[in-house]
Amino acid sequence: MGEYFNKQVFKAVWPICFGYIPLGMACGILGEKVGLDAFLMAMMAIFLFAGSGQFIALAMIGAGTAIIPIVITVGIVNLRHMLYGLILNQHISKESLLYRMIYAQEIVDETFAVNSIEFQRKNSSWTPRKAAGLNFLAHMSWTLSTVAGVLLGSAVYIDTGLVSYALIAMFIGLWSFHFKSAKLIGIGILGGGLALLLSLWLDNMLNVVVATIVAAIIGAAIDNGEGAEKK
Fold this sequence. Notes:
Blueprint: H1 7-33, H2 38-47, H3 51-62, H4 67-77, H5 80-92, H6 97-105, H7 109-120, H8 128-153, H9 163-176, H10 182-198, H11 206-230
Helix pairs in contact: 1-3, 1-8, 2-8, 3-4, 3-9, 4-11, 5-7, 10-11
C-alpha cells in the first residue's frame, strides 16, 4: 500500500481534496433539495464521479426532467473523459484490464491534469499505482464532501428554484473553456439559439440534447471542410 499512498501522492492530491470540499458540499446541498438522501448521494458520487455531470443531473432532476434526457446530456457533457483516458492509457497500458477499468472510472478533469503533469515530469518517478492512489483519495474527498452537504442541507436554506439555474451556469462554465476560438464561440451561440427555438416543440430538456447534437455535427462538418481546403 505504500506505493499507492505515500508522501508524493499526498503532496500531489491535497489541492484537489481541499478544492473538492466546498464544491462537493454545494453539490450535496443541491442533492438534498431535490430529494436525494445521504445514501443516494454517495452512490451518485461513487458511480458518477464527475462534478459537472452531477450538478447538471441534479439540476435536471430538480426541473422534473425524464431519465433518458438526463443520461444523454450527462454523457455528452462528459465525452471529454474518453479523450482523457486515451491520453493517459500510454502510461498505464501495461497494467491489468481490471486496473484500467477502475482507473477509467476515476478520471475527471482534476485527476487527469495532475496525473498528466506527474507522468510527464523529467525523470518522473510517478507510477500507475501512485496515480491510482491519487485518484482514490480525490474520489473519496468528493464523495465524503457531497454526503456532508446532504447532511447539512436540511439546515441550510436554498430556494429550490435556484437549482434550475445550475444547469445554465454549468453549461456556460463548460463553454467558457472554448472562448479562445471564435469558431467554437459561434457554435455555442448556434447551439443555444437552436435550443431556445426547439423548446417551442420539445420538452423534458430534449431541446438541449437535440440542439447539442446538431451544433456538434455542424462544428465537425466545418472542421472537415477546413481540413479538406488545406489539403
